[in-house]
Amino acid sequence: MFTGIIEAVGSIRRIEPRGGDLRLTVAVGKLDMSDVKLGDSIATNGVCLTVVEQGSDWYVADVSRETVQRSTLAAFKVGQRVNLEKALTPTTRLGGHLVSGHVDGLGEVISVTPDARSIRYRVKAPDALARYIAEKGSITTDGISLTVNAIDGAVFDLNIVPHTVQETSIGDWAPGVRLNLEVDILARYLERLLLGEHAAQAGAGGSAGGITLAFLAEYGYGKA
To answer: Which one of 60, 107, 108, 109 has the fewest beta carbons within 10 angstroms of its own beta carbon?
Structure first.
């Protein structure tokens, strides 16, 4: 698990195709690798990757075909900047929110607008994820724990302060850039709880189905 508070900005040093999946070598920038062991997890632009080789300023991770297909990793380029965070420990400050490092879908930046000293980004999420995104709720975007400032359908706004821009890869975002999105895990568990005994039925839950207005009305969650 992670917190979504970025510890360092690294860069992609090498990309090796491996029979349908990938092996990445990542330069870690200022990330402290002294306590990292083989098998540990490092969130890389929000994707939980396992360290299979390492040095004082780099690590290697194998990326499965599933991860390549569900994230932006397939579009990574050598030299690209990436947000890095080591897995949390029992003594870690939970400055963001609980993040699993499992990407739910891809968003796209649709506008970037100065807002006083901050910058406002508008991001389009996949329609299937819109129900998990709430105003003033949390969302993980390329591994960064951020607060949703406004939402309109599947489009949400992020108001980013200068410190966050400087300490992450957000400064590289521009209209058309695709982002790894992970919705708040609590929203997903709440959906499953509301399904009750119907959660065991085929097609219940996940991005393809689950809670609908018709379901809520049928089980008494609508207006009296």
So the answer is: 108
Beta strands in the chain (DSSP E): 8-18, 21-27, 41-44, 47-54, 58-63, 81-86, 105-115, 118-124, 138-141, 144-147, 150-152, 155-160, 178-183
Q: What is the mean pLDDT of residues 20-30?
A: 95
Average pLDDT of span 101-123: 95
Looking at residue 49, what is its pLDDT?
A: 96
DSSP state of 209: S
- Which tokens in the block code for residue 11? 């860069």
- Looking at residue 207, the DSSP 8-state letter turns out to be T
Is there a domain that residue 134 lies in? yes
Residue 47 structural domain: 8-86
Are residues 199 and 205 in contact, defined by beta-carbon separation less than 8 angstroms? Answer: yes
pLDDT of residue 191: 80
Report in angstroms the alpha-carbon separations of 125 from 53, 114, 180: 34, 21, 10
Give 3-state DSSP helix, strand, coil % of the chain, rounded to 5.
20, 40, 40
Residue 75 sits in a domain whose CATH number is: 2.40.30.20
Q: What is the mean pLDDT of residues 126-146?
A: 95
Per the structure, the count of domains in the chain is 3
Residue 50 has pLDDT above 90, yes or no: yes
Position 143, amino acid: G
